[in-house]
Structure of Membrane fusion protein, multidrug efflux system:
Amino acid sequence: MNFKTWPLLAAVLTLAACNGEPHKSEETPPPAVTVLSIKPAEVTLSDDLPGRVAAFRTADIRPQVGGIVLRRLFEQGAEVKAGQPLFQLNPAPLKAEFDTAAAALQHAEATLARTKRQAERLRTLIDADAISQQAYDDAVSDRDLAAANVAQARATLERRRLDLAFATVQAPISGRIGPELVSEGALVGQSDANPMARILQIDKVYVDVRQPASMLASLKARAPAGQHATILGADGQPYSAEARVLFSDLNVDAGTGDATIRIQVDNADRTLLPGMFVRARIARSTASDEILVPQQAVQRAPDGHAVAWVLDKSNKAAQRQIIVGEVISHQYVVREGLKRGDMLVVEGHERLQPGIATAPKAWKAPAQLSAAPGAAAQQ
């Protein structure tokens, strides 16, 4: 035997021995998924309607007498009280008219006193037939006319007293006053087109929203005398203020068929300002035993139908076609396809195939879902 061929023979035998050993492959672990046990709950279906904030009351400050504006008596943008002085007009012309009216009253009272004395003297003479009846009747008429002149002079004096008081322009309502719209030294009058300033009462405000008139029947059926609502800001966060629907302020637009709904909102902290865009969440109906599932648990099949993955008792995956309804707080309302007790796959379904075994663990709901489960607004 040629000893030079031994290394080659040894290599061939080693290779044959390796090929003869059985091949051992590593087993793939089951995919990890998070699951949720289906539990029906009571759900309040609501509508989020766009709206604008309007002041509870608005008052344009206008002068009741004409005059020159001497000074402004308020701080622009501040809160004012009803009856608080706002502007001071020049009172000198009005004071002169008041003095004239006071003098006219004195003259009328003096004339009345004279005519009374005259009529009293003539009354004794008429009894003695010393004067004619005509002369006595004229004296009585003069007395009565003088009394009427006194009453007229008193009314004129009272009017001049009011005009003098109106030289100080006061706030008709309490609220927040805006900037002055006339400057000191300006001549103002009752017929001016522009107000001197404007006061808005915003400790309570209105939110005017529009809703199809066909939905008003269900709204009235739930709360005939009024219904609570939730006001949402532009960022979607709710305001803590109490809001109530006012049915007395409904008005149907003949062109669009929409009704304007006025909502009264407490606004003690002045968070809502007139003209702001907000959304009003109004409850439409309440349903019991509704199934809510997180949005991420629902997928769309190529044909557009909604599908979801569920696990059986042996943790094997199966895909189901479902029918979904409204979206409530990032959750679908499932109309068909799921039932109480089903183990729904929420996360990890992208690695699933029908019949594959899984390693499930409980899904933890985010804070925004766990804070108010089963009751929210339609998105």
In short: The chain is about 25% helix and 35% strand. The first helix runs from residue 6 to 19. The radius of gyration is 44 Å.
